[in-house]
Amino acid sequence: MTEEKSHPNKESIEDSLESFRKASERKRLSLLNALEERVEELLGMGPSLMCGFDPGICDWSPGFILQLIHKTDENFIKNNLNCNDLSWFNAPSQVGIDYSPLQRYLLDESFEDADRFTSSKLRELAGEKAVSRGYVYFSEVEKIPSVDLSTLNKLWIVYSRGKFGFTVQAKILDSLGGRYDKLWPRIGWKKDGIWTRYPKAFNWSIEAPNGHMPLVNQLRGVRLMDALLNHHGLRDES
């Protein structure tokens, strides 16, 4: 007896996926466990799995689906979605940077590696002096191309169920009246915002508070993070 005959009232996996895609933010979150229980059916959809999703927009629902199937079958994306480097989302760069490593890190939920990659690319985007000194001055942020900053932000959002990303941090900060002293505890950072990666006290998991990543160390004050969160390329998306 087929599963469909055994459960005549059960929604088809195609309909369940479409309901997930169209659902509100809160509703989507309530559907995660149900989709996880039907991962084998999702895999059975093959190349048609992602047909209803758009790789060009900042939407975390396809990112969750990709992470879910990748945990079960690490070859599915390569074999069925024509993504040899596992980069399903569009990730444009004004200066020719390849963001496929970031997509792979985030797909695997290797958030610390993703954060290191992000920091490295921010230095590269800020210019040779930033690369040489090993950190970005707040005055260099303005020169970072909007396209690239938007791509970095998008990839963090789509692979974190909408929890992480610069615009997530910016929205939380705005809700707190721009008070960084209130932002730190909200996003799970130390009260002064200053972090070092060792010892590993930072929470590099999907269970971290909203806005916890990417890490922007406040060792030289809040001006760098303030410049990033107020970059016109991000503010246009807020």
Would you give an account of this structure?
The protein is mostly helical. It is built from 14 helices and no strands. It has helices spanning 3-6, 13-22, 25-36, 39-44, 60-72, 76-80, 100-107, 111-126, 128-133, 146-158, 166-175, 180-187, 223-229, 232-235. The model is unreliable at 1-8 (pLDDT under 50). The chain is 51% helix and 0% strand.
Summarize the structure.
This protein is an all-alpha fold. Helices cover 51% and strands 0% of the residues. The radius of gyration is 19 Å and the shape is globular.
In the residues, how many domains can be counted? 2
Low-pLDDT residue intervals, each spanning 5 or more residues: 1-8
Cα Rg: 19 Å
Strand content: under 5%
Order of helices and strands: HHHHHHHHHHHHHH
**What value does the average pLDDT take?**
91
Number of helices: 14
- Characterize the largest beta sheet: strand count, sense, and whether it forms a barrel: none
Distance between the termini: 51 Å
According to DSSP, the number of beta strands is 0
- Assembly state here? single chain
Helix content range: 40-55%
Name the features.
mainly alpha, Arc Repressor Mutant, subunit A, 2 domains
Helix and strand layout, with pairings?
Elements lengths: L2 H4 L6 H10 L2 H12 L2 H6 L15 H13 L3 H5 L19 H8 L3 H16 L1 H6 L12 H13 L7 H10 L4 H8 L35 H7 L2 H4 L3
